[in-house]
């Protein structure tokens, strides 16, 4: 999100012009767009809804029985949870059961974090509901 | 939990409680024993118990074996257990493979590449340590681990896969449903027919064990296709003579079974199931050429840089002929 001070100063430099046929001012937004900072990195991990991420965390905690270990967050990597290959396949199954979907293998293989898992789930749900 | 007392130890020298550097000097030269490379009908299984290594404070010595990139990768892992597994699996593979080269390559200098789905493969140097032209041995290897045990399978056959699971592992999901959805139809049907949950659990883990070993041998890992298409059935086995013609080196469990792989590729692969120290199930999948010679098995326990021991508490529980 662009900072408030940047937005305020950019707004003050925008030119308003009146069109000949309407009484409303037209605001030139092109300069405002240029001032927005790039945040592609954040966009990837924030795509999934917090509720989905939380459900994935619950599924993972229950499946891996990690109550004794460190708390799982959205950015937690599955590899860091010490899951072996049977755990990983069980995790996929558990997510499929929880959300009542079938996860495609190619997509599931690319997943490294909890957030990415939530993201794939939402994509799959959207496709199924389309 | 795998316990050191499960193995009969035949120490060839005592372990002294001395400063680490002196310890290294005392033992590293007597440990420089080279190993005869296995041929295509030899299978060598090496077991490392994480507890033993920790008790002897060897982890920092092992770190010195890893090349710089692997050491950095190891330190980037946030989970200590995962870090230790990374270190021990690579130490085991490097030290063993180097020993099979008879001193031509150092364990730190070995290079590996990964196949499409991540299976590691040795990339041999063109020259040996002394700068001479050298023909490396034909070797394939594969690693597997549980919390307490790491296994490295090494063979002269072109492909091998190994998987180890704790005998008392309880899957966390509904494994009957899992089998229905992911395994072959024949397997799912058989699962339904079994009477009690314990028999179902045992059947599930045995299938998983075999599918995982196969997936790792072909370099696919356990993909949906492998789970569904690489199907197995089991039969009671008699007479014992058939076994003795197929496999030597390890005794058979009284209830050994015949593994019948039921997929198109099956005749190129041989499967073996072991019970280790009554606590771990190990499965191996080995590429089988046209050889009809019996498979020669050798299972040893090792503490890299220290010693090897023969493993006595192992039996074969299943075999495909």
How would you explain this protein's 3D organization?
Chain B: One of its GO terms (molecular function) is magnesium ion binding. Chain B: It is an enzyme of class 2 (transferase). Chain B: It comes from Ceratopteris richardii. The complex is a heterodimer of chains A (about 130) and B (about 325). Chain A has about 130 residues and is mostly helical. Chain A is built from 7 helices and 2 strands. Chain A has helices at about 5-15, 30-35, 40-45, 50-65, 85-100, 105-110, 115-130, and strands at about 15-20, 25. The longest helix of chain A is centred in the C-terminal third of the chain and has 16 residues, at about 115-130. Chain A starts with a helix and ends with a helix. The model of chain A is unreliable at about 1-20 and about 35-45 (pLDDT under 50). Chain B starts with 19 loop residues before the first helix and ends with a strand. Chain B is about 30% helix and about 25% strand. In chain B, the strands form 3 sheets. In chain B, strands 1, 4, 5, 8, 12 and 13 form a 6-stranded mixed β-sheet that branches. In chain B, α6 (about 175-180) runs antiparallel to α7. Chain B has about 325 residues and is of the alpha+beta class. Chains A and B meet through α4 and α5 of A and α5 and α6 of B.
Brief write-up:
Chain A: This is Acyl carrier protein. The complex is a heterodimer of chains A (130) and B (321). Chain A has 7 helices and 2 strands.
Give the terminus-to-terminus CA distance of chain A: 30 Å
Largest sheet of chain A: 2 strands, antiparallel
Tally of DSSP helical segments of chain A: 7
Q: Report the order of strands and helices of chain B.
A: HEHHHHEEEEEHHHHEHEEEEEEE
Q: What would you call the shape of chain B?
A: globular
Q: Distance between the terminal alpha carbons of chain B, to the nearest Å?
A: 32 Å
Domain 4'-phosphopantetheinyl transferase (chain B): 159-243
GO molecular function (chain B): holo-[acyl-carrier-protein] synthase activity; magnesium ion binding
Organism (chain B): Ceratopteris richardii
EC number (chain B): 2.7.8.7
